[in-house]
Amino acid sequence: MALFSRTKKTTAESKVEGASPKVATPSRALPTDRNLALVLQAPRITEKSVSLGDQNVYTFVVHRSATKYQVRDAVKAQFSVTPVKVNIVNKAPRQFKSRSKGRTVLEKGMKKAYVYLKKGDSISLA
């Protein structure tokens, strides 16, 4: 008495029983894995980022889950330039006591990317 042995059906028998054909399994990749339009959210225009623009360094606010490689690919796709280097800074949200309102205020966090370009390349953000 073998509890775990089963007889294998041949393909002819499975066709007779009306077995359904194999269905392709969906990809395990996340839907945002290669959607590069969602990676770069906005250019970050501040006094520091404008001064870095003279040195071919551009600053962008990026998606929370974006990686350096996704940022590189998104800049290639949107602006047709190849970044030399990408640095990512993760700014954590913080709570602080407001002096004027007298209550706790929440400052939102963000993730920003510094994109370094070659000497001749540039991006027009306007």
Tell me the layout of helices and strands.
Blueprint: H1 11-16, E1 40-43, H2 47-53, E2 57-62, H3 68-79, E3 83-91, E4 94-97, E5 104-107, E6 110-117
Molecular structure report:
It is a single chain. The protein contains three helices and six strands. The protein is of the alpha+beta class and 126 residues long. The strands form two sheets. Strands 1-2-6-3 form a four-stranded antiparallel sheet, sandwiched between helices. It has a two-stranded antiparallel ribbon with strand order 4-5. A hairpin with a 6-residue loop joins β4 and β5. The longest helix is centred in the middle third of the chain and has 12 residues, at 68-79. The termini are far apart.
Low-confidence stretches: none
Assign an overall shape. flat
Q: Measured on Cα atoms, how large is the radius of gyration? A: 26 Å
Question: Helical percent range?
Answer: 10-25%
Mean pLDDT, to the nearest integer, reads 83
- Kindly report the spatial arrangement of strands forming the biggest sheet: 1-2-6-3
Order of helical and strand elements: HEHEHEEEE
Quick one: biggest sheet? 4 strands, antiparallel
Strand content: 25-35%
Total strands: the figure is: 6
Tell me the distance between the termini: 78 Å
User: Which structural class do the helices and strands define?
Assistant: alpha+beta
- Please report the number of helical segments: 3
